């Protein structure tokens, strides 16, 4: 039990250190995130990030915050904490812009209640959407040069709590409640740089909140159909209900004559339901292959009763490989032999539909898992992502992302002499 206390202190210190990633209020990012609620955050863990998958069917001793049914194999209490740092380069074919940012990727907790029934509780705090853009245009209004600035920042996160249960043999079910909340700031300014004309300033701060439910299912086909000779062949399914977000707005209007603030309730935002499916299998003792896909019809995204014209149905598919150590007794292995190695690829048809064209992306990743003790490990992943193209008023974006995290856990309700067995 003393180890749990030490790990919890480590978490508190690390969480506080997130302030080191603080940025200016509006920074250059992806202009695509002006649409909808910005970029979905598909990060689930450093393990799945290194494989380019979302983990719908992926099981084991890690916390799966995508599919609650996939946590049924967790054998000990586990805390996980992750960070990311991204480098983004965008180009319209004539000019390039570069930026970087870092942030926490989430904190999750898993707790097995009854191992033989796959009854596991999970809870966490995880980012869901991210908005970050700053667009500057130099134009002409009524024959007068004017500098126009449009910027946005913020996003949504979720507090989640759920459980898995393997009450029926070879079937695991899961359910998870999610409370989503966040703050989105948007800025629009006109700067004439001319004392004869009044500059204008408008800043909107919108607080959003709402809840949704996830349902998950895992089916172990290998154990049901033994003639397949694939004991760990597993199918996973995910359904997420639609989300209705309520909003409170503060508008700040300004000119050279002064500022005025108004507050009111905003229109309800409706985020469409999400569907997903995946498959996983172990080949031999060391190779795990997993693939999954997510679908969400963003053409049904509404603000009030209004459909957003720049959004479409989205699709993401990924496949990844994990190579595990040759023995569970990692202390007896060589330096390179006791690590977990991961790689993966993904394709994404994003929700953005700009100037009559779909913004699509490709990505690849590499990862490594480093065991520290029986219950503690460090995971690192490196991903390269590209999307969009130049021409037709579009941007090509290239991102290099580094994610790192620590997993620390312990067996509970056992006497010290039992833990050493």
Compact summary:
This protein is mainly β. The chain has helices at 2-16, 46-49, 221-224, 416-419, and strands at 39-40, 77-91, 96-114, 119-141, 144-168, 171-191, 200-220, 234-240, 243-255, 258-265, 269-271, 274-283, 287-297, 302-303, 306-307, 313-323, 340-354, 357-371, 377-391, 394-410.
Can you describe what's shown?
This protein is mainly beta. The chain has one domain: Outer membrane protein transport protein (OMPP1/FadL/TodX) (Porin), CATH 2.40.160.60. The protein contains four helices and 20 strands. The chain has helices at residues 2-16, 46-49, 221-224, 416-419; strands spanning 39-40, 77-91, 96-114, 119-141, 144-168, 171-191, 200-220, 234-240, 243-255, 258-265, 269-271, 274-283, 287-297, 302-303, 306-307, 313-323, 340-354, 357-371, 377-391, 394-410. The longest helix is centred in the first third of the chain and has 15 residues, at 2-16. It is elongated and about 80 Å long.
Essential attributes:
20 strands; mainly beta; disordered C terminus; 421 residues; 6% helix; Porin; disordered N terminus; 14-stranded antiparallel β-barrel
- What structural category characterises the helix and strand content? mainly beta
CA gyration radius, whole angstroms: 24 Å
Fraction of residues in helix: under 10%
Total domain units: 1
Strand content: over 45%
CATH topology descriptor: Porin
Q: Could you give the topology of this structure?
A:
Layout: H1 2-16, E1 39-40, H2 46-49, E2 77-91, E3 96-114, E4 119-141, E5 144-168, E6 171-191, E7 200-220, H3 221-224, E8 234-240, E9 243-255, E10 258-265, E11 269-271, E12 274-283, E13 287-297, E14 302-303, E15 306-307, E16 313-323, E17 340-354, E18 357-371, E19 377-391, E20 394-410, H4 416-419
Antiparallel strand pairs: 1-4, 2-3, 2-20, 3-4, 4-5, 5-6, 6-7, 7-8, 7-9, 8-12, 9-10, 9-11, 11-14, 12-13, 13-16, 14-15, 16-17, 17-18, 18-19, 19-20
């Amino acid at each position: 039990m003393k180890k749990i206390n030490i790990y919890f202190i480590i978490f508190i210190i690390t969480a506080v250190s997130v302030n080191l990633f603080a940025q200016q209020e509006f920074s250059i990012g992806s202009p695509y995130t002006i649409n909808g609620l910005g970029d979905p955050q598909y990060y689930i863990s450093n393990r799945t990030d290194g494989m380019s998958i979302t983990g719908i069917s992926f099981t084991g001793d890690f916390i799966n915050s995508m599919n609650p049914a996939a946590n049924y194999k967790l054998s000990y209490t586990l805390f996980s904490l992750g960070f990311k740092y991204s480098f983004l380069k965008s180009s319209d074919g004539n000019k390039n812009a570069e930026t970087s940012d870092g942030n926490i990727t989430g904190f999750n907790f898993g707790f097995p209640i009854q191992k033989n029934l796959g009854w596991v509780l999970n809870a966490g705090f995880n980012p869901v959407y991210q908005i970050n853009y700053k667009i500057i245009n130099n134009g002409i209004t009524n024959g007068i040069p004017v500098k126009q600035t449009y910027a946005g920042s913020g996003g949504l996160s979720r507090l989640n709590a759920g459980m898995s249960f393997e009450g029926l043999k070879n079937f695991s079910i899961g359910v998870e409640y999610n409370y989503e909340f966040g703050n989105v700031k948007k800025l629009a300014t006109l700067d004439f740089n001319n004392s004869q004309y009044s500059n204008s300033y408008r800043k909107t701060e919108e607080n959003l909140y709402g809840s949704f439910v996830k349902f998950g299912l895992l089916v172990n086909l290998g154990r049901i159909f033994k003639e397949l000779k694939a004991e760990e062949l597993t199918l996973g399914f995910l359904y997420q209900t639609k989300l209705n977000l309520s909003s409170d707005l503060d508008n700040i209007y300004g000119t050279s004559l002064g500022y005025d603030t108004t507050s009111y309730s905003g229109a309800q935002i409706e985020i469409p339901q999400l569907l997903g499916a995946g498959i996983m299998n172990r080949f031999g003792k060391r190779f795990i292959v997993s693939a999954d896909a997510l679908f969400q019809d963003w053409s049904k995204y509404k603000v009030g009763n209004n459909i957003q014209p720049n959004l479409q149905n989205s699709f993401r598919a990924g496949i990844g490989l994990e190579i595990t150590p040759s023995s569970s007794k990692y202390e007896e292995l060589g330096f390179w032999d006791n690590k977990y190695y991961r790689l993966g690829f993904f394709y994404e048809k994003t929700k953005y539909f700009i100037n009559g064209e779909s913004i699509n992306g490709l990505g690849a990743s590499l990862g490594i898992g480093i065991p520290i003790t029986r219950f503690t490990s460090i995971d690192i992943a490196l991903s390269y992502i590209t999307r969009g193209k130049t021409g037709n008023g579009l941007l090509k974006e290239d991102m290099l992302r580094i994610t790192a995290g620590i997993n620390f856990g312990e067996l509970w309700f056992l006497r010290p002499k039992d833990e050493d067995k």
